What does this fold into?
Amino acid sequence: MRLMDLPAALRPRVVVSSPLRRCLETAAPLAEALGREIIIDPAVGEIPTPTSLAREERSAWLRSALQGVWGAIPGDEDYGVWRRSVADAVASHAGAAIFSHFVAINAVTSLLSGDNQVVVFRPDHASTTVLEVRAGALALLQLGAEAATGVL
It folds into this structure.
């Protein structure tokens, strides 16, 4: 689904992105087409890596985390709380197109579907998952396209 093909009333009014370059680069064409600045929100960014890990240890930690459940991921964060904070950040941007990451998208979709697994689906690059804020609560309307990933 191309967002600019939607009727004007359904198009996003705001463009929000993780601060990481790959999201900002993906968000840029939509922001330009809408004539909007990108709002950078670190709360929709990547899952925080434990501070005790060396950079080269992140991939192994992430692979292990992706096979787990929320609240049982090792590290100095309470990743169950992080999961909720991502969903709250997404809900705070009603009417926005939000450009985020594999784990953050799974944090929100797993919470909304009631599944405690870290990975509940594998969003393809640049796929669109549709969420809605109803009476102040976030609701999942449609998962984005899935793809095989080399992350797991």
Notes: The mean pLDDT is 90. Residues 3-142 form a domain with the Rossmann fold fold (CATH 3.40.50.1240). The chain has one domain: 3-142.
